[in-house]
Write a structure and sequence with these properties.
heterodimer; A: 294 residues; alpha/beta; eight-stranded parallel sheet; 10 helices; 14% strand; B: 229 residues; mainly alpha; 14 helices
Chain lengths: 294, 229
C-alpha cells in the first residue's frame, strides 16, 4: 500500500529514518515549517530554515525515493515575539510562491494570545492571496477551546473550510472538526497526542471521510513509522483496505492537491535513485561510502 | 541585595572571591558584553554548590527578598553570583530603563543554564515588570528545567503575568508532571477560566484512557470553583 505521511519534520531525522520509511512504503511526505525546539531570535534564521526545507531536505528525501513537499508559515509559538513575527510575515510571500510549497502552515494557536490571533489572521489572508490550503496546528494545552476558536476564525475570515486541515486531533476535538467541512489530521505519537490503537477506534466510530493520520516525527520522542503502524492497528481491528488507503493516501493527496503544486507524476516509475547526486556539492554519502543498489 | 551579596561572598573560597570582585567591577562598566562575559564565566568560577548552606541562610535570604516566595533554597552559588553581577551593574548608576535594557540584552546572550539563573532572579528587581515579555516567552520552552525556573518557587508569574499567561503556565505544569504546589501564589490567582481549562484537560485525559494529575484540585478549588458549582 502506498503511504503519504502528510506531517513529518524530517530536518530532525536521520538517513536511517528515511531508509526505514521508504522500506515501509512511504513514498511522499509533507514537512510543515514549525519551530526548532527553542525560539529563534533573528528573521534570518527563518530564511535559512525555509530554504533548507525547500532545498537540502527535499534533496535528501529524493535520495531515498521519497517525494518531499513542505508548508511554509510562522508557527504560533514564535508568533508571540511581535517584532520578529512582523519581520517573518514580511518574508513569507517570497517563500509561499515557491514550487513544492503545498500549504501555509503550521499556523494557529499555542497559548491563544492576542499576538497569535493577529499572526493567524494575517496568514489566513496570505493563504487566500496565494491560493494555498491551510494546515492548522491545534494547541497542546486547552486544545478543545483552541480547536473551536480555530474553526471560528477561519469562518470569520470567510476562508473555504474544505481547504483547511486541522491537525493533532483527539477524541474531544475530532467531532468538532467533522461537524465543519475542514479535514481532520491526527498525530500518532509514542506517548502524547494520539496512539495507533485509539486512532483505529476513532476510525471505527467515524469512518474514513476527511480523516488523515501522520507521524509528525520531530526532535522529541516520536516515530516516523507511525503511519504504517497505524495501518497495522486498523487492519487488526478489521478495517478494510479501501478505508485505510483513503486515510493514508487518497485524503492527504486530495487535500494538498488543492494547492495545484502537488506533483506526484512518475511515482510508479521513479528514476533509479542515484546517490552520487549532489545538492550544491553536498551528498548524503559520507567518507568512503559507495552508493548501494536498492 | 546586599544581604545576598554578603552571603554569596561568604560562601566562596578566597580565589573565587577575588574573581567576583573583579567581575563585579567589569559588570558595572562598559557595554553589556562585559557583563555577559562574567555572567557566563560564573558557572566555571564558582560552581553549582547550593547557595544556602544552612536553613538559617535560607531563612535570612527569604526575609531579604523583595517578594516572598523566591526559592533561594534551590539556588546554586552560580545563580547567586549572577544575581549579584546584575545588581552591580544596576547600582553603578544604571537603574530604571537602562537596567531593564541591560538585563534584556544580557538574556539575549544567555544559554539555557544562564537563562535559568536570570529567570530565577527576575522578581528581585524594581524594574521586574519591564522584563515581563521575556519571562512569559521563556515559558514556551520545551526544556523542563528552564520552564521550572519561571513556574516553580518563583513569585514572578503570580505577581506580573496576565491571567491568560498565568493559566497557560499552570496547565503546562500539569502537562509536564510538575507539582502545582511549587507554583507560588497559585491559590490567590485561581480563576474561573483556569478551572474550566483544568476540567477540559481532565476530560481529554479520561477520553484518551489516561490518568488525571492527582493535584489538579489545586487549579480548581477556591472561590472560582464554588461559583461554577
Amino acid at each position: 500500500m502506498r503511504i503519504f505521511d502528510p506531517h513529518v519534520h524530517m530536518t530532525s531525522r536521520t538517513t536511517d529514518d528515511y531508509e526505514a520509511m521508504a522500506g515501509a512504503g512511504i513514498v511522499a511526505i509533507v514537512e510543515p515549517a514549525f519551530w526548532l525546539g527553542q525560539p529563534r531570535t533573528q528573521a534570518g534564521s527563518f530564511v535559512d530554515y525555509f530554504n533548507s526545507l525547500l532545498g537540502w531536505e527535499r534533496f535528501r528525501a529524493s535520495q531515498f525515493g521519497i517525494r518531499h513537499f513542505c508548508t511554509i508559515g510562522l508557527n504560533p509559538k514564535e508568533a508571540n515575539n511581535a517584532r520578529l513575527a512582523d519581520e517573518v510575515l514580511a518574508l513569507l510571500p517570497r517563500f509561499l510562491a515557491k514550487d513544492g510549497v503545498v500549504a501555509i502552515g503550521e499556523i494557529g494557536y499555542d497559548d491563544q494570545t492576542d499576538e497569535e490571533q493577529r499572526v493567524f489572521e494575517r496568514q489566513i489572508a496570505l493563504a487566500a492571496e496565494f491560493n494555498l490550503p491551510i494546515l492548522i496546528h491545534t494547541p497542546h494545552r486547552d486544545k478543545k477551546q483552541g480547536t473551536i476558536r480555530s474553526i471560528a476564525t477561519i469562518r470569520a475570515m470567510g476562508f473555504p473550510e474544505e481547504r483547511v486541515l486541522i491537525d493533532h486531533n483527539n477524541e474531544e476535538t475530532l467531532p468538532l472538526v467533522l461537524e465543519s467541512r475542514c479535514w481532520a489530521g491526527h498525530t500518532i505519537y509514542p506517548k502524547t497526542k494520539m496512539d495507533e490503537e485509539r486512532m483505529a477506534a476513532l476510525v471505527e466510530t467515524y469512518g474514513s471521510d476527511r480523516i488523515i493520520v501522520n507521524s509528525a516525527a520531530d526532535w522529541g520522542i516520536s516515530d516516523p513509522l507511525k503511519v504504517p503502524k497505524t495501518i497495522a492497528a486498523m487492519r487488526a481491528r478489521g478495517i478494510g483496505d479501501a478505508d485505510i488507503a483513503r486515510i493514508v493516501w487518497d485524503n492527504p493527496v486530495a487535500f494538498f492537491a488543492q494547492s495545484g503544486r502537488l506533483d506526484l507524476g512518475d511515482l510508479d516509475a521513479p528514476d533509479a535513485i542515484d546517490r552520487s547526486q549532489k545538492f550544491e556539492t553536498n551528498s548524503v554519502l559520507r567518507g568512503d561510502q559507495v552508493p548501494s543498489a536498492r | 541585595m546586599e544581604l545576598l551579596a554578603g552571603l554569596v561572598e561568604s560562601r566562596l573560597p578566597h580565589d573565587a572571591r577575588a574573581w567576583l570582585a573583579d567581575a563585579r567591577a567589569q559588570a558595572a562598566r562598559g557595554d553589556v558584553n562585559g557583563l555577559a562575559t562574567v555572567y557566563t564565566a560564573a558557572a566555571v568560577r564558582v560552581g553549582r554548590a547550593p547557595l544556602a548552606a544552612s536553613a538559617a541562610d535560607a531563612a535570612a535570604l527569604a526575609a531579604a527578598a523583595p517578594l516572598a516566595g523566591v526559592g533561594f533554597d534551590r539556588w546554586t552559588l552560580t545563580d547567586g553570583v549572577r544575581a549579584v553581577l546584575l545588581a552591580s551593574r544596576r547600582t553603578a548608576g544604571r537603574a530604571g530603563e537602562a537596567f531593564a535594557a541591560d538585563a534584556l540584552a544580557c538574556f539575549d546572550l544567555c544559554d539555557a543554564g544562564e537563562q535559568q539563573s536570570w529567570l530565577r532572579a527576575a522578581s528581585l528587581w524594581p524594574e521586574a515588570e519591564a522584563l515581563r515579555a521575556v519571562v512569559i516567552d521563556a515559558c514556551r520552552t520545551n526544556i523542563l528545567p528552564l520552564f521550572e525556573a519561571v513556574a516553580c518557587e518563583n513569585p514572578y508569574p503570580a505577581r506580573y503575568f496576565p491571567e491568560r499567561n498565568f493559566n497557560q503556565m499552570v496547565l503546562k505544569a500539569m502537562f509536564n508532571g510538575v507539582a502545582l504546589s511549587r507554583i507560588v501564589g497559585l491559590p490567590e490567582r485561581r480563576n474561573a477560566d483556569l478551572a474550566r481549562m483544568a476540567r477540559d484537560y481532565a476530560a481529554e485525559r479520561r477520553a484518551a484512557g489516561r490518568s488525571v494529575p492527582g493535584d489538579i484540585g489545586l487549579a480548581l478549588e477556591g472561590p472560582a470553583a464554588q461559583e461554577m458549582a
